Amino acid sequence: MSKDLQTRIRNFSIIAHIDHGKSTLADRFLEATGAITAREFREQILDAMDLERERGITIKAHAVAIRYQAKDGQTYSLHLIDTPGHVDFTYEVSRSLAACEGALLLVDATQGVEAQTIANAVLAIGNNLHIIPVINKIDLPSADIEGVKHQIQEVLGLDVKDALLVSAKEGRGVQEVLEAVIQRIPPPAGDPDKPLKALIFDSWFDNYQGVIVLTRVVDGGIRPGMKIRLMSNNRVFEVTEVGVFTPKRTKTDSLECGEVGYVCAGIREAADTKIGDTITDAARSTDSPFPGYKEVKPLVFCGLYPTDTAQFEDLRDALQKLRLNDSSFVYEPETSLALGFGFRCGFLGLLHMDIVRERLEREYGLSLIATAPTVVYRVLTTPGEVLSIDNPAKLPAPSSVECFEEPFIQATIITPERYVGNILQLCQERRGVQKGLQYLDPTRVMLTYELPLNEVILDFFDRLKSKTQGYASLDYELIGYRESDLVKLDILLNGETVDALSFITHRDKAQVRGRHLAEKMKELIPKPMFEVAIQAAIGNKVIARETVGALRKNVTAKCYGGDITRKRKLWEKQKEGKKRMKQVGRVEVPKEAFLAMLKVTGE
Amino acid sequence: MAIGLYIHVPFCRTRCHFCAFYLQIHRDDKAQRYLASLAREIRLHADLNSLGGRHLDTVYFGGGTPTTLLPDQLTGILELIRECFGLQERAEVTLEAHPNTVTAEGLRCLVRAGFTRISFGVQSMDDDELVLIGRRTHGTTARAAVVAARRAGFANINLDLIYGYPGQTIASWRATLDETIALEPTHLSCYAFTLEDHTRFQVDVRRGDRAEPDAEFQNVMEDEALRRLAAAGYERYEISNFSRPGYTCRHNLLYWQGDEYLGLGPSAQSYLNGCRFGNVDDLTAYHRALEAGRLPILEVEQLSPGQRVREAVAFGLRLTEGVDLGELSSDSMNGEWERTLNRLVERGWLEERSGRIRLTGLGRRFADSVAVELL
Fold it and tell me: Nearest C-alpha of chain B: how many angstroms from A564?
């Protein structure tokens, strides 16, 4: 490709909070440039997976190539790189941003700057991206354009005098944004004559092609037939196909210097293609690879068990297949006295965990029991060992524990001023330490807190939303381990410890959590034939007890012709429901009970 | 195989606090229109030969309160049934009645027309409790109605009772049982109170104005009924039904024994040729269908042979005599099913004797749990 063509490439992404209109704006770009026909147009095209659509968030990054004829008469290649919009996927965001020269900072004129917007904008600034502030939803009566400009300037220190005003919904200002992308975002630098150097920023598994890699070519170029090497593991593959998404997958002859597109090279496992890794020419290696991929470390662990023990092998197969597509989760076999054979799985966060579990159930037809999520604790034992504990059941006896450490995060919360009191209370309940309180404008406040991660993974986000009527936003980053006074809380059914229900908590919280959990279990366990005692205990000390009374009768009094079909259907449903129960000793425990912990943290 | 006909009369004068049946408050014009639609429905089935030419063993007028209709109207329907389907010589023809809605003259007229059995909704003999459950009647009215029915020629009389609702006491239940037994009905139905959706009772319980029914309390009351009724010569032949020897309700037996029946009127259910189907439970839709010459059937379900057998067991076990294992088809008797049976026997809910399985005394309290296991 000539240097001239390279000057007509623009690589950019859109940074926005959920619901601030990113997908709508992306759709408008595609429409405005004729990249898709009306028939192909679907709302929010870039969110491909069903789950993403349902949850209204983007999980996988995507890149779309758009040809755009600008006002200067030239035709430009725009590459829009979509980024995940959730804190669980921060690393993926940072790598997507690394593939760009610029970013649109999209802010809802009625909502203002949110925590994730700030976090991602800070990432973009750190990647030396040129940032164009774009204020969306200016058509709405409650739009506060000046206020939002002020926030962007105040919080991010960006110059807002050239901020663009759009209504993605109505299509207003979209053309101006595309022109600004061309005028303000620099073309990719890079040298087409140097050896190949390309950044992997996403990959997924395709049943026909194997792994598809999304990449940004920085130096050199890629074409089919070429032998490439992945620098993290030195594995060599032969390129079978390259191309771009328009948004349909479209083969091209090559990916040239500065371009963004996909590469297929007969790679069979997503785990080989680490995000952040460098692709180079197998014959002629680049001498300046990217700083290297970061091994994404799971923060949240839980046990996944088949409800029907016969599905263990199916679960193993499903996990294997799913991991081809998503190398950011990990799993290894474990056994539980209560649940039998299953897997301990690690995820980037709670959302990631939910998504993986839902995909396993939906796409692989499995019925799973998930145990309460836990973070990874560090235990210093009296013999001087350091253990990483991702399963409460593996905790050594208290007598051999010298001390505990738990992971802490720094959380950034942005909220309307009137909810500050509620949030301070919530953070305090969750053992948070306030680090900052800053007014973004007279009505909006940014709070900074250090919090133990284990207080956040359960239901912190839900509680935050409910205490602020959905207005607060949250972002966080891990800041390391700190010593903490932790205990293991066990749940006993009829005197037997149910290992899958044990969890680790701060000593000060144990009493209340134990009591709430016992109460919740009582609600969830259907009336058994024999009385069931539910106890919460720390070591040998019982701290709470509830009793589920025995079922005294279960018989329909009136059962005539009109009742037969109705009753049979009800009984058939109950029979189905029994399959969702796990027999623990003599007690039938519903699947939901193993996640009861998520429901009881609200003090 | 016996075959029966059920007629649903969807009218009452008032709705009781425990009732969730499909019904409307009676009005003459509504009743007129209903009778016209019902006649159409009967004729349509006759034209379609739904019963395959078989004459009816039993006819049952239920509701609602069939006796909100006038005796002439009731006998008119029965005449039409006789004309369209035909009745067996010794057919059982039952009429459900509210003690407030019968007269000596009317009862005589019904007996003459061929009604052989009358079933009064008594529920309680205690006037305060009748108020509590929303029945605007008195114990003395029930007593008078039973006497009048017998005098009019009804030799087969059932009384319905309810026990175990919040507000009732053991003492009042004993009194109701004793006063009822003293009326010497041939048949008694004793229903444990059930909190149904969309009832006044349920609203009250939700609001906290009434307590929820207590299962243990109901068990105690049930034991009380079993003792007193047995002593008075009544046999329990189904979970909630008791009779003097020879007076079981032949119509209701059809339901539990997996026999066939046709149900007419809004919300009525049918079982013919292995197929369960039901009418719309809405008078307007019922009229619309029949006035357009269509059957008002809403749902049809053809049972598989396996389903039929499992259903026969689940409902047959409600009968004291239980189910004949020999009559069950062999393919349903697989190992899995066998193991379930054994487990239920071990638990003390089922017993197997001379080729029949039946619920034990304890098992009768968990009949639905057993059904869930065996379905």
Answer: 8
Cα distances (angstroms) measured from residue A28 to each of A45, A74, A167, A169, A479: 10, 20, 10, 8, 39
Q: Where are the domains of chain B?
A: 3-255, 307-375
CA distance B11 to B34: 10
Q: How far apart are CA A594 and CA A368, in angstroms?
A: 11
Contact B219 A552 (CB under 8 A): yes
Contacts of A555 in chain B (CB under 8 A): 192, 239, 364-368
Q: Among A555, A564, A572, select the one facing B239 at the smallest CB separation.
A: A555
Closest CA to A108 of A414, A351, A475: A414
Q: What 3-state class would DSSP assign to A537? A: strand
Rounded to an integer, what distance in angstroms lies between the CA atom of residue B83 and that of residue A383?
A: 96
pLDDT given for residue B330 in this prediction: 60
The pTM score is 0.69
Q: Verify whether the Cβ–Cβ distance B194 to A559 is below 8 Å.
A: no
**Residue A35: predicted pLDDT:** 61
Instruction: Answer left, alpha or beta for residue B324, where phi above 0 means left and psi between -120 and 50 means alpha.
Output: beta
Distance CA A44, CA A25 (A): 9
CB < 8 Å to A560, chain B: 252, 255
Q: Where are the beta strands (DSSP E) in chain B?
A: 3-9, 11-12, 24-25, 56-63, 87-97, 117-123, 156-163, 187-192, 235-238, 241-243, 260-264, 269-272, 275-279, 297-302, 323-324, 350-353, 356-359
Q: Do B367 and A565 touch (CB under 8 A)?
A: no
- Residue B328 pLDDT greater than 50, yes or no: yes
Cβ of B30 under 8 Å from any chain A Cβ? no
Q: Give the bridge partners for A305, in sequence order.
A: A369
Q: Give residue-wise pLDDT tens across range B271-302.
A: 999 999 999 999 999 999 999 999 999 989 99
Contacts of A578 in chain B (CB under 8 A): 372
Q: Decide if B3-255 and B307-375 have a common fold.
A: no
Cβ separation of A559 and B254 shorter than 8 Å?
no
Q: How far apart are CA B362 and CA A439, in angstroms?
A: 69
Does the CB of B367 have a partner CB in chain A at under 8 Å?
Answer: yes
pLDDT tens for each residue of A377-411: 999 999 899 999 999 988 888 888 999 999 999 99
What ipTM was predicted for this assembly? 0.93
Q: Any CB–CB contact under 8 A between B302 and chain A?
A: no
Q: Which CATH architecture has domain B307-375?
A: Orthogonal Bundle (1.10)
pLDDT digits (tens, 9 = 90+) for B97-127: 999 999 999 999 999 999 999 999 999 999 9
- Evaluate if residue B269 carries a pLDDT over 60: yes
| B299 phi, psi to nearest 5 deg | -130, 140
Pick the CATH number of B3-255 from 3.20.20.70, 2.60.120.260, 3.30.420.10, 3.40.50.300: 3.20.20.70
- Mutation site, B255, B297, B307, B346, interface A, largest A CB count within 10 A: B255
* CA gap A322, B17 in Å, rounded: 55
pLDDT digits (tens, 9 = 90+) for B198-248: 899 999 999 888 898 999 999 999 999 999 999 999 999 999 999 999 999
- Contact check, Cβ <8 Å, B368/A561: no
- Of the candidates A561, A565, A568, which has its C-beta nearest B6's C-beta? A561
Give residue A31's pLDDT: 79
Residue A194 has pLDDT above 80, yes or no: yes
CA distance A328 to A86: 15
pLDDT tens digits, one per residue of A27-62: 888 777 766 554 454 444 444 445 444 544 444 447
Count Cα neighbours of B24 within 13 Å in the Cβ-side half-sphere. Answer: 15
- Phi first, then psi, for residue A552 (nearest 5°) are -90, -30
Give the separation between CA A438 and CA A446, rounded to whole angstroms. Answer: 5
